[in-house]
Write a structure and sequence with these properties.
Blueprint lengths: L1 H4 L22 E7 L5 E8 L1 E3 L13 E3 L1 E3 L7 H9 L1 E6 L2 E5 L5 E7 L8 E9 L12 E9 L11 E3 L1 E2 L4 H6 L2 H5 L10 E7 L9
Length: about 210
């Protein structure tokens, strides 16, 4: 991650991080963002923007809703995403992602990009924010990120007909982090299907599974 995302050792805040078999909503994951100095730093953030939720009957606070994905067509007009899109864009490192096909049971399908390694490292386009307004307790202090999605390409469509995460080409990392609103928005498009492949299929697979 340091090499691909050009992170100086003193700005890698993960410590002796071990590989993760999978990343789940509300759990921590590595994220690349701009430090206050303008340099890139590697930090941990919880996956999913949180919003308050109250009981309609009692008015008491319930477990907050988590928003794991942000649609590209809503970034400029939805309050939950707009400020982060303008001021707090980030890179989300990954080696593959899962979509589920069917139900009872669903089939897990894992997608990766092509390259010399079985699952080369890449980055999703992401947004982040610090703190969760209106949420009490530990969750209210979390730094969180969310993943931007766009229309599905021809490889993903048979599994998820409408959406897929935005995968950024390495040449576009800097533009996503520091470019203007229009420059960043122009990057929100499906990754070429011929530069991706399916690396695992099955029921209840983790990222390390083969199939």
């Amino acid at each position: 991650m340091r090499q691909l995302f050009r992170i100086e050792p003193d700005l890698d805040h993960l410590g002796n991080a071990e590989p993760l078999p999978a990343i789940w909503p509300k759990y921590e994951a590595p994220v690349v963002r701009l430090a206050t100095s303008g340099a890139r730093e590697l930090v941990r953030m919880h996956w999913g923007f949180l919003t308050p939720k109250t009981s309609e009957k009692t008015g008491k606070l319930l477990k907050p809703d988590a928003w794991n994905n942000a649609r590209d067509d809503k970034l400029r007009r939805t309050g939950l995403w707009k400020d982060s899109f303008l001021h707090r864009r980030c890179l989300i490192p990954a080696t593959s992602f899962r979509e589920a096909k069917g139900r009872n049971p669903a089939t897990d399908v894992w997608f990766a990009i092509t390259g010399e390694e079985p699952r080369p490292l890449f980055a999703f386009a992401g947004l982040w924010r610090d703190g969760q307004p209106g949420i009490e307790g530990e969750e209210g202090q979390w730094v969180t990120h969310t993943m931007v999605t766009t229309t599905a390409n021809e490889l993903v469509k048979p599994v998820h007909p409408t959406r897929m995460p935005v995968i950024l080409h390495p040449d576009d990392h800097e533009t996503w982090l520091t470019g203007s609103e229009d420059q960043a928005f122009a990057l929100l498009k499906p990754f070429p299907a011929d530069q991706m492949r399916i690396v695992a299929t099955g029921i209840g697979l983790t990222k390390d599974s083969e199939g």
